[in-house]
Amino acid sequence: MPNKLSKRINHERFNRYVKRSSEVGRTDNNGLHRLALSQADKEIRDQLKVWFEQAGLTTTVDDFGNMYGRREGKNPHLKPIVIGSHLDTQPYGGRFDGVLGVLAGLEVVESLNDDHIQTERPIVIVNFTNEEGARFPQPMLGSGAITEHFNKSFVYEIQDEKGITFEQALQEIGYVGKEEYRLKEAEYYLELHIEQGPMLERNSKQIGVVGGIQGMDWLDVNVIGEKNHAGPTAMEDRKDALASSARMISTLYEITNSYSGLKTTVGKLHVHPNVANVVPGNVEWVLDVRHEDDTLRMTALDEMRHALKQQAALDGTSVTVNELWASPAVLFDEDVLGAIEKSTDNLGLTRMKLYSGAGHDSKYMPYFGKTGMIFIPSVQGVSHREDELSHDHDLHNGVEVLLHTVMQLDAN
Amino acid sequence: MPNKLSKRINHERFNRYVKRSSEVGRTDNNGLHRLALSQADKEIRDQLKVWFEQAGLTTTVDDFGNMYGRREGKNPHLKPIVIGSHLDTQPYGGRFDGVLGVLAGLEVVESLNDDHIQTERPIVIVNFTNEEGARFPQPMLGSGAITEHFNKSFVYEIQDEKGITFEQALQEIGYVGKEEYRLKEAEYYLELHIEQGPMLERNSKQIGVVGGIQGMDWLDVNVIGEKNHAGPTAMEDRKDALASSARMISTLYEITNSYSGLKTTVGKLHVHPNVANVVPGNVEWVLDVRHEDDTLRMTALDEMRHALKQQAALDGTSVTVNELWASPAVLFDEDVLGAIEKSTDNLGLTRMKLYSGAGHDSKYMPYFGKTGMIFIPSVQGVSHREDELSHDHDLHNGVEVLLHTVMQLDAN
């Protein structure tokens, strides 16, 4: 089907979308501070409505504030191809995380309009509410809600730091839509996103074909020793929770290296009482373990738990391990991945397969339909920061691959 | 000389001193909150003056607020035997830390009065100002000042958390004395103190003969890696400042164990940004290294610095090490230690030699005269806490040894 396209996407038009979006909630350092359901979010939502109308799309809003722009297909009874992501950002975040996926959908539709192409299937562009979980502390809230991972009262009652509920905030910006407008099905779901990591750049690849989202476990590890004065307490009389934790962490990284592709992070650690001349009585840390193969991850976790107990026994400390959060791996659809690969190759672009370490709305969409994600390089892997950057040519490549993939899948 | 003593100390009188002191600044949990130059400190100082008078001592106060009670000797031209410590406490601290040393001095003098014994040398009891460094952040301020480790303007200008200077606080409680009253010399300095550690209790000894105060170094270690997202960043691409720190700390403890008696503590550690799913870019910690042998400590420190650099090189991190504080070891006088040992043995008490890990006024007193310290057991080594405890019989043993030691030394 790609050969039916008389021309490629319109770079200038797409750049205008990006430019306009980058003005709404702009920070002094050229980033975006556009928290979910804030005034800035209202402004970009109002803008999106205008863009939907200009592109000839029918706009609807559901009761979670998710916004849809629908372009009819030749066969309106077929399930749609859904293209989506989110327009909310992290606090002082970047211009592309999420935003790209929605604006790319617009550009795909406008390109089809330019070429007077009507697809077989309807196309629906979605802007999901509160993907970041930055204001309302539950990431991927809108996509999780429509796929029934969260029930409505849970969503409506979540509060931001000031105690404002999701429902209040939604009402305040006038985006309480109708339950009947919720997306209920999709043949395909496609999401274009910046990588937020360095792999594409380091491997000099233009397109990332995302195999899935890594499974992830967060364990709270609490190492309990005995608080003592550093001066009088002999080494052999100590039960030092930090010394013990240091040995545990070193061991966990050794274990990690024995499993190909496993990623382990101890990013958060608190020492108690955290005084220079006091032997720490208690150290608490969070262990983040990720892999796209759930079985491998579980095996590694078992080995880790065992090693923690063993080290504690050696050190005279005790350790408790509590699961804070577990998220199984999501593997994307092979047909969709194949279409992305073919489109990439047809366009003469280079590609590699990788797995997303972060969560995305794509995580929940396999409950509705065949899902795939496309990554483009982010400069130096920077994301969730104001200086998040993607080169224009990479952005354009990504949108082009998305357009071709839509055409490919529609022809299936 | 001990056989000249017709009887031992008066337990009831000594207990009354302790009881009264324990009421001034008493906390709900039976501890003491008597910060230097506070109203509670004024109250106990006023009480001490009364006790000095009752014991027939001449009271003077110097320009740092240090209080002296002098008992004349047969030969007033001889340098005095000084007995001292401090009446200020940690915030929500214990009843004995410091306090014991001053009250024991009183009881020694009263026991001599009971027996109508006049020593050859004058005896001076000292209550040093702000030993704890809890309110004005410089420990052993009064003893350090008279031994010219701190100059007067430095001492007067030190501020507490509220911005009140030492000088203002001293004026406020009416304890600005005269420069001419500063202690200028001592033949001997004796300090009785609770151990603040578990060694006596664990070894079932009644008296600790303190060989000196351990030398101590505080190093600020800053490990710099690269902040990255936990999700997308492959293990081999990481420069994890916490993983690197964990390996460094493990190695430092291995090195420590290869030096007999060396004590190493990492009690304070901060991770940046300290977020569970972010590979730490920077970890800063304080390394506390102690030993009574300065040469051994320096050798160990050199090995540690080398090991830190080596680990950083292996991990692709970088490390900076800055000396925050260095305090050479203080070794007490052999004659004084001998007198303490002899007194202990004469009294049929058990003893062991140990080194103080914490600082005390005794640290500065060797600049004036031959110094020694006596430790008594603290229950479970607890100190700097409201539940700091010493058994009555241990307290009495300590005062008795102090009295006998004074008599021994006076006969030299």
TrEMBL record, chains A, B:
It comes from Geomicrobium sediminis. Gene3D superfamilies: 3.30.70.360, Zn peptidases. This is N-carbamoyl-L-amino-acid hydrolase. Residues 213-312 form the Peptidase M20 dimerisation domain. Its EC number is 3.5.1.87. One of its GO terms (molecular function) is N-carbamoyl-L-amino-acid hydrolase activity. The keyword Kinase does not apply. Belongs to the peptidase M20 family. Keywords: Hydrolase.
